[in-house]
Amino acid sequence: MDNGFYPRWLEWAQRLQAIAQTGLYYNPPEFDRQRYEMIQTIAAEIMAAGGANFEAVLAALSVQTGHATPKVDVRGVVFQEDRILLVQERLDENRWTLPGGWADIGESAAESVVREIAEETGYRTRAVKLLAVYDRNKHAHPPYLFHAYKLFFQCELVDDQRYPDPNNVETGEVGWFRADALPELSTSRVTAAQIMRFFVHRENPALPTDFD
Fold it and tell me: Per-residue pLDDT tens for 105-123?
């Protein structure tokens, strides 16, 4: 489906990778294994045609195992009056994003987002509402190798104190921003349209969870 954001060629490549990864997982006969490996190589070639290094892309795809499913990214939406909590992402030239990351095995999605907020901002929070479940491919994020779902949780501060994690190397400064004064965003992680939607949720707490 052409959604106006994600390039069709990358969506096709993701689907080919899913077919190859899932097929290889079920221990196919040798001839079928070779075909699935060929499909995986074709997927890597398509992705690399967008400007990435083919060997690096193929290596990233090859280490994926198991029945292919979308990855899960969790993000925390924390408000303080009319301002939203953002952090600088060091891996993206210190652009700003909602705190969060990939959900970890052994944690619920809510537990993951509360942990991520604590690690990246130093604030202790509790998750109170799932605001949105977005298909990354359907929003204005830059291309990414894998299909992912993005879960945005509204979280409340437990207190106003910060307890910075001395082992945090992923994020930099922490700040609170009004809707009309957002900094440059790390759009691979969050878009301005998504943040503005969460301000709408703040003003209308009875709104149901958004989903694609």
Answer: 999 999 999 999 999 999 9
Alpha-carbon gap, residue 131 to 139, rounded angstroms: 16
41-39-51 Cα angle (round to 5): 40
Tell me the C-alpha distance between 143 and 141, whole Å.
7
Longest dimension (CA), the chain: 61
Give the predicted TM-score (pTM) of the model.
Answer: 0.86
pLDDT bracket for residue 2 (50, 70, 90): very low
Angle among Cα 44, 48, 50 to the nearest 5 degrees reads: 135
Nearest by Cα to 159 from 123, 128, 127, 129: 123
List Cα–Cα distances, 3 to 61, 140, 186, in angstroms.
Answer: 24, 10, 21
